[in-house]
Amino acid sequence: MDKKHLIIGVGFIGAAFASLYVGQRLAPQPPARPAAVRQEVAEQAAATTAA
Predict the structure, then answer these.
(1) pLDDT of residue 51
(2) Boundaries of every domain in the chain
(3) Taking the complete model, does pTM exceed 0.85, yes or no?
(4) In the chain, which ranges are continuous DSSP H helix?
(5) CA 42/CA 29 separation, integer angstroms
(6) For residue 29, what is the DSSP state?
(7) CB count, 10 Å around CB of 3?
(8) What is the pLDDT of residue 1?
(9) Per residue in 1-51, pLDDT tens?
(10) Residues 18-51, buried b or exposed e (16+ Cβ, 10 A)?
(11) What is the per-residue pLDDT for 41?
(12) Residues 39, 45, 48, 50: is their CA dihedral positive or negative?
């Protein structure tokens, strides 16, 4: 394997990781939970940590 192919391969691997990183940044955020659900989850978490 010569130097040119090595540089191209490393470039492709770098581009793949860059696309994963940028894709995560540009992805829409998941919708926020309703307040009632958030309150219930917080109460359940407090009950399990207190026990």
Answers:
(1) 55
(2) 3-50
(3) no
(4) 3-26, 35-50
(5) 21
(6) P
(7) 7
(8) 64
(9) 699 999 999 999 999 999 999 999 988 888 876 777 778 888 888 887 765
(10) eeeeeeeeeeeeeeeeeeeeeeeeeeeeeeeeee
(11) 83
(12) negative
Distance CA 1, CA 23 (A): 31
Query: In this structure, what token pair is assigned to residue 11?
Result: 């470039």
CA distances from residue 31 to 1, 18, 21, 49 in whole angstroms, order as listed: 48, 26, 21, 27
Nearest partner of 33 among 41, 25, 22, judged by Cα: 41
Structure tokens at 16: 């793949």
- Please name the residue that has the structure tokens 């307040």: 35
Q: What phi, psi does 27 have (nearest 5°)?
A: -70, 145
